[in-house]
Amino acid sequence: ATEAKPYDVVVIGGGPGGYVAAIKAAQLGFKTACIDKRGPPGGTCLNVGCIPSKAMLNNSHIYHQTLHDTKERGIDVGDVKLNLPQMLAAKENSVTTLTSGIETYLFKKYGVDYLKGAAAFETANKINVALNEGGETQLDAKNVIIATGSEVTPFPGLEIDEERIVSSTGALSLKEVPKKLVVIGGGVIGLELGSVWARLGAEVTVVEFLGAIGGAGMDAEVAKTFQRSLQKQGFKFKLNTKVIGGERQGDSVKLKVDSAKGGKEEELEADVVLVAIGRRPYTTGLGLDKIGVEVDGKGRIVIDDQFNTSVPGVKCIGDATFGPMLAHKAEEEGIAAAEILKTGHGHVDYGAIPSVVYTHPEVAWVGKNEQELKADGVNFSVGKYPFAANSRAKTNQDQEGFVKFLTEKDTNTILGVHIIGPGAGELIAEGTLALSYKASAEDETLSEAVKEAALSTYDKPINF
Ligand code: FAD
Ligand code: NAI
């Protein structure tokens, strides 16, 4: 057998957590390898997540706006037709441009060795790689960073065939627009991908177990406004409803649903059912048992505040461990983990991780929401400013939504910023900065709607 290749750092997984950790480690002078069995780097996010979903969201929005929202603006358009194969090709093109950029440019520039294959622990310092092109290789690693990400949580009894019963992956590549799409789970994936197909012509029904949409973290008042807005766009919601069974019958899927409390059974028929009830850590085949890495009841790899697992020399970051399953969170952890290896210090501000839902209107937030502050017994002030009072939003005829500030009553320290409306995903950066610097509402000076909402927590707004 050939000698195992020696590395300072071996990163398992080439997603936003893994590829960023590998580049940072290499920049810090470590001899670094990154392994991914998918082939192209970029993980879930670039290949079947953030990037393709944002491509479809952007282009479906342009299509929908061109169909329905041009006349009053003084734009007469002729026949507007959907060319779905081209829209899917544009999406694929965005994906490959970005993934090949990592592989052929960034990894080469910073000297990361990229291996395409499935990694498994032989020991804590020896990684076996079953190469995609055939054969095996072994790496010797002083330090290992696990960044193997997550996978779709399956729905018991509904087998995903990525054709009629799909996960987000199948929903990003449907060959035709379904007449009826039923989404199980009214969280981020359900609402983003539901929006894509609703805009392209599908009748979308969302079945959500809880009494509100948006998944964890969304402020209840924002969720209500969001739901009303999506209903205006044609979404149907079945809240407090559970799916109790279903099966594919030829080209359609029959689902049995019931109210969460029971006693209101009914049947739904759909051309396509999207299962979007969350994601779970993915560590299959990694050999965690073999070296004794501790995993919790939800399958998350247990780490301390320096990303150390229970096995010395092995760290874990991103979706495979605790915290929100977001690309920028995984990236921040990747950088911090590499810095800790070099200097012993590295930090992620878990209190200031923004969330964005890229629908129309956009929804974004950072920090605590109202229901969380109430549950924690915090004495807080609320400042709200509607986009309907904002000249630019009005002029653009895009005035749905509001900015909402939550501050600590005595000190006016910002505790949470919640935005639904135009540009929410960009505006939230200001809130994130404010939160990480523990700013008070008086410090807010930038964009107008944000400033007025901040002002409203301790004084009267000017334009509303
Ligand atoms: P991943 O990106 O999952 O990467 C892990 C990689 O490890 C995979 O490529 C896998 O092939 C590889 N791997 C696993 N096991 C092995 C092994 N044994 N050997 C070799 N390789 C292995 N987040 C956002 O912040 N913004 C968004 O807009 C957003 N949109 C999303 C849309 C969708 C449809 C989905 C599904 C997710 C979205 N996310 C978004 C979440 C985001 O994709 C994840 O949080 C992020 O990808 C996590 O990064 P990661 O590096 O931890 O894991
Ligand atoms: P999610 O956790 O956001 O939402 C799942 C929803 O399904 C919740 O509302 C939950 O109450 C509901 N649910 C759970 N079990 C159910 C059942 N049996 N029947 C009906 N409803 C049920 O998960 P989702 O949407 O699958 O997304 C997974 C993760 O991917 C997100 O948590 C997020 O971290 C990430 N993501 C981020 C995006 C972004 O940042 N823009 C976009 C897409 C995904």
From TrEMBL:
Q: Name one Pfam family in it.
A: Pyr_redox_2
According to its UniProt entry, one GO biological process term is: 2-oxoglutarate metabolic process
Disulfide pairs here are: 45-50
What cofactor(s) does the depicted protein rely on? Answer: FAD
Going by the UniProt record, its keywords in alphabetical order are: Disulfide bond, FAD, Flavoprotein, NAD, Nucleotide-binding, Oxidoreductase, Redox-active center
Pyridine nucleotide-disulphide oxidoreductase dimerisation domain residues are: 353-443
Report the EC number(s), separated by commas if there are several: 1.8.1.4
- Which residues are listed for FAD binding in this entry? 54, 148-150, 319, 325-328
Q: Which GO terms describe its molecular function?
A: dihydrolipoyl dehydrogenase (NADH) activity; flavin adenine dinucleotide binding
Q: Which InterPro entries match?
A: Class-I_Pyr_Nuc-Dis_Oxidored (IPR050151), FAD/NAD-bd_sf (IPR036188), FAD/NAD-binding_dom (IPR023753), FAD/NAD-linked_Rdtase_dimer_sf (IPR016156), Lipoamide_DH (IPR006258), Pyr_nuc-diS_OxRdtase (IPR001100), Pyr_nucl-diS_OxRdtase_dimer (IPR004099), Pyr_OxRdtase_I_AS (IPR012999)
The residues that hold NAD(+) are 185-192, 208, 278
UniProt cofactor note: Binds 1 FAD per subunit.
UniProt superkingdom = Eukaryota
Where does it sit, as one GO cellular component term?
Answer: oxoglutarate dehydrogenase complex
Domain (FAD/NAD(P)-binding) spans: 7-334
Q: Which reaction does it catalyse?
A: N(6)-[(R)-dihydrolipoyl]-L-lysyl-[protein] + NAD(+) = N(6)-[(R)-lipoyl]-L-lysyl-[protein] + NADH + H(+)
What more the UniProt record tells us is: The active site is a redox-active disulfide bond.
UniProt lists the family membership as follows: Belongs to the class-I pyridine nucleotide-disulfide oxidoreductase family.
The protein's name:
Dihydrolipoyl dehydrogenase
Lineage runs: Eukaryota, Fungi, Dikarya, Basidiomycota, Agaricomycotina
